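Need a sequence for this fold. Nothing fancy.
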């Protein structure tokens, strides 16, 4: 048994209730300046050709790999869950030839995406409540699934997918025992009900009617991105303060440094889990 398999059964708090009003406030109020700051920082973190406006800790090449592992043809109908400004949706639509629809709670992000005109449909709403006209061939989420109770989310995803449809979750994952203070920061402070292991995801997907096809571990690169994001914030302090405020810069730097430290300690990683909806 691997260390992570044993962790799947280690005591951990039960998932907290989802709080989508708090999630919306996080992105529309607390993190309202984040898109502007991300556009400053992440071309230098990922590389200019690897930053497409994503909020997830993934380069463009990692997003391409996730999409390739979903193994869906051009023309597939795909839902981007937690699409933000729709930049990943537009990128994968262009790369893969998919017809991508995005859904998000953040009105500010969606307004920015619509103003930019990325050529993909962007829906303001809650995935549990929105009445989609048709089922999808695929659903993916890059850095947004953390805001959901995975068991409930996977059940909803299964109901939205055609048989054989693909679900991909690219998300931070728990690798070590997390103490109460760190658990609070990684869940309550970020409006996330839980921090799952990849084994947790696999078990919950099976219960929801999926078969796991691939697990893509990008933890080592994630640690590089995390450390680099701290360095770049310090390098761009003047630009970030000018665009936001000194308080924002200090808060942003402290959060980035904290997450880099947690990942460096081996408690937090990043992975994609790709599953197939069973008949």
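Here you go.
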């Amino acid at each position: 048994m691997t260390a992570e398999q044993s962790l799947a059964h280690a005591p951990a708090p039960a998932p907290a209730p989802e709080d989508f009003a708090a999630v919306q406030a996080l992105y529309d109020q607390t993190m309202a300046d984040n898109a502007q700051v991300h556009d400053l920082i992440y071309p230098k973190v990922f590389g200019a050709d690897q930053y497409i406006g994503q909020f997830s800790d993934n380069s463009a090449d990692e997003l391409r790999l996730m999409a390739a592992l979903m193994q869906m043809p051009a023309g597939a109908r795909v839902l981007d869950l937690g699409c933000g400004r729709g930049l990943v949706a537009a990128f994968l639509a262009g790369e893969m030839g998919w017809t991508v629809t995005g859904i998000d709670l953040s009105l500010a992000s969606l307004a920015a995406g619509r103003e930019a005109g990325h050529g993909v449909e962007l829906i303001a709403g809650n995935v549990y409540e929105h009445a989609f006209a048709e089922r999808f061939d695929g659903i993916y989420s890059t850095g947004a699934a953390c805001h959901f109770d995975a068991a409930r989310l996977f059940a909803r995803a299964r109901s939205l997918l055609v048989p054989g449809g693909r679900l991909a979750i690219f998300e931070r994952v728990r690798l070590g025992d997390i103490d109460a203070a760190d658990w609070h920061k990684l869940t309550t402070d970020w409006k996330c009900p839980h921090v799952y292991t990849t084994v947790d995801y696999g078990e919950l997907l099976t219960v929801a009617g999926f078969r796991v096809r691939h697990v893509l571990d990008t933890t080592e690169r994630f640690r590089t991105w995390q450390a680099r994001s701290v360095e770049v914030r310090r390098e761009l302090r003047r630009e970030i303060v000018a665009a936001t405020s000194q308080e924002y810069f200090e808060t942003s730097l402290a959060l980035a440094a904290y997450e880099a430290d947690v990942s460096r300690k081996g408690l937090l990683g990043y992975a994609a889990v790709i599953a197939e909806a069973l008949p």
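For context: Residues 227 and 261 are 8 Å apart (CA to CA).
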